[in-house]
Specification:
Shape: globular
Number of domains: 2
Largest sheet: 2 strands, antiparallel
CATH class of the largest domain: Mainly Alpha
Radius of gyration: 25 Å
Structural class: mainly alpha
Strand order of the largest sheet: 1-2
Oligomer: single chain
Distance between the termini: 55 Å
Number of strands: 2
Low-confidence stretches: 1-24
Number of helices: 13
Helix content: 25-40%
CATH topology of the largest domain: Cytochrome Bc1 Complex, Chain D, domain 2
Mean pLDDT: 93
Strand content: under 5%
């Protein structure tokens, strides 16, 4: 009888052990290379990095890090603090405030459709790859003001992060390279392709008379010799499916003597790059004010007036804009400007602002 009781208790113990083992969360932590399905509608096939394939778990880790306030010195800010989803992943402040309440030097650029940018990142292009860009704000004294060593230590205190690094990379080890690759994956996954204009191209929406006239003005070249057919020539710099040209240009914001931010020249050391900045996409432009690298314009009307009558001449002003300057501006009427603004508003992708795939995972 005693032996039977011992065997019975032993059997119960084994059952409890097996049951507990089955409930162990660690048993579900597996490396998962399942590719992430990138949706981009009618946009061209993106040229994604071959050495950082987008995976479900990698994108999820990047999403966690994008919204993680532990990346900042005092735990008050994340990447998403200055790149807010409901503002088109940009900041509506002229200059974002860092953890020490210090202003940044330039306006925060929107974070979407980065898979279609074939040149460098930041206004001056100081980051060659998106993964390089992802780590710089963490270490910038004006932004998150933290060291990578401290960030890694903080993330290592979280088993959830160790588990997610294992799912994404096959190891619990947390390091700066893996962080950058994951954040690159998430930012590459943020795609805007469902604006009214996109629906128009697909035959699913109709532009109003004003919007369509604005579209034509946007696309038509500037022609000072035949004003009746002259357009605003916006597509010269903001062309293609992503409404940008992957170049750095001087768009006449300041005269030669008044250029205080030398832009691209600071990176290349080439004086011919003085006052040149990365040409941004005009997608979602109506919800991503203020405008220009220094956020000097609050409205689209101010932007159009700049190109029409307020450009300044300097040595590196884009040649096409020199022609406009030399001929007294675009000569746009009040109706022209209204139509252009109405067209630009058709580039707003409202689905981007509430897409749960891009929102905070916490």
């Amino acid at each position: 009888m005693k032996n039977i009781k011992i065997i019975y208790l032993f059997a119960i113990a084994i059952s409890v052990f097996i049951a507990c083992r089955g409930e162990d969360p660690a048993a579900d932590i597996k490396y998962d290379e399942t590719p992430y399905h990138l949706k981009y509608g009618q946009l061209p096939i993106p040229d994604l990095p071959l050495d950082n394939t987008l995976t479900n778990e990698g994108v999820q880790l990047g999403r966690m890090l994008f919204y993680e306030k532990k990346l900042s010195k005092d735990g008050s800010q994340a990447c998403a603090s200055c790149h807010r989803q409901n503002d088109g992943f940009s900041d509506t402040m002229q200059f974002s405030l860092g953890v020490e309440l210090l202003e940044g030097k330039r306006q925060a650029m929107p974070v979407f459709n980065l898979a279609w940018h074939s040149n460098e990142f930041f206004w001056d292009g100081r980051a060659t790859l998106l993964r390089e860009q992802s780590l710089k704000p963490i270490q910038d004294p004006l932004e998150m003001n933290e060291t990578l060593e401290n960030v890694i230590a903080k993330l290592n205190d979280s088993q959830d992060y160790k588990d997610q690094f294992f799912r994404a990379f096959g190891s619990e080890e947390i390091n700066a390279e893996k962080m950058s690759l994951a954040m690159e994956q998430f930012m590459l996954s943020i795609v805007s392709y469902q604006s009214k204009y996109d629906q128009f191209l697909e035959g699913q929406a109709t532009l109003t008379e004003s919007e369509d006239r604005g579209r034509l003005l946007f696309e038509q070249e500037y022609n000072p010799f035949f004003p009746e057919v002259s357009g605003a020539d916006c597509a010269h710099c903001h062309g293609g499916a992503n409404f940008e040209n992957d170049q750095f240009m001087n768009n006449g914001l300041d005269s030669e003597a008044m250029i205080t931010d030398i832009g691209r020249e600071e990176v290349t050391g080439d004086i011919s790059d003085k006052g040149k900045f990365k040409v941004p996409s005009l997608r979602n432009v109506a919800i991503t004010p203020p405008y220009m690298h220094d956020g000097r314009f609050e409205t689209l009307e101010e932007v159009i007036d700049h190109y029409d009558i307020h450009m300044k001449e300097s040595a590196t002003l884009d040649p096409a804009l020199v022609q406009v300057f030399d001929n007294g501006g675009l000569n746009l009427s009040a109706e022209d400007k209204i139509d252009l603004v109405n067209f630009l508003k058709t580039l707003t992708d409202y689905s981007l602002m509430d897409n749960a795939e891009y929102s905070s995972p916490f």
